[in-house]
Amino acid sequence: MLATGGIGSFFDVDRGPDWVFVRLTSADVDWTESPPVAETIWNVLEQSFTYRVVVELDRVTLMRSYLLGQLVLLARRVHAHGGILRICGLSAHNQEMVRLSRLDELLPNYQDRGEAVMCSSPMRPR
Fold first, then answer.
1. For 40-62, what is the mean pLDDT?
2. Fewer beta carbons below 10 Å: N end or C end of the chain?
3. How far is residue 51's CA from residue 19's CA, in Å, rounded to a whole number?
4. Which CATH code fits 3-118?
């Protein structure tokens, strides 16, 4: 990675030459009390001059509708700028929440950041 940093206590950011990796850092955050997720990540992308991002969700124990909505907003904004948004590390329960919301095509889940970058097949529920 070229650079590593954090955005407060909510996000960790790694920057590579072509990608930005954002890990949501805590399992027990009330995301409605955090900085707006979509806007915060968007600002990181603009500062990095790249619109290719992997959002790592392995520390999120329960995907609530607010966070899911923020990821949808971010995905639409990234796609409108010709970029790529991929998520990785969803628990089986959270992956099911994405599927039941019919957002699994917009937010395909990959096992880890390496798989997300290499664009192998997204993980499917068992």
1. 93
2. C
3. 8
4. 3.30.750.24
The string of pLDDT tens digits covering residues 73-119 is: 999 999 999 999 999 999 999 999 999 999 999 999 999 999 999 97
Note the pTM of the prediction, 2 decimals. Answer: 0.83
Tokens of 8: 């407060």
Specify the long-range contacts of residues 32-40, CB closer than 8 Å, at least 24 apart: 32/66, 34/8, 34/10, 35/7, 35/8, 35/10, 36/70, 37/67, 37/70, 37/71, 37/74, 38/70, 38/71, 38/73, 38/74, 38/77, 40/7, 40/10, 40/11
Mean pLDDT along residues 12-38: 81
Residue spans per domain, the chain: 3-118
Q: Decide: 73 and 65 in contact? Cβ < 8 Å.
A: no
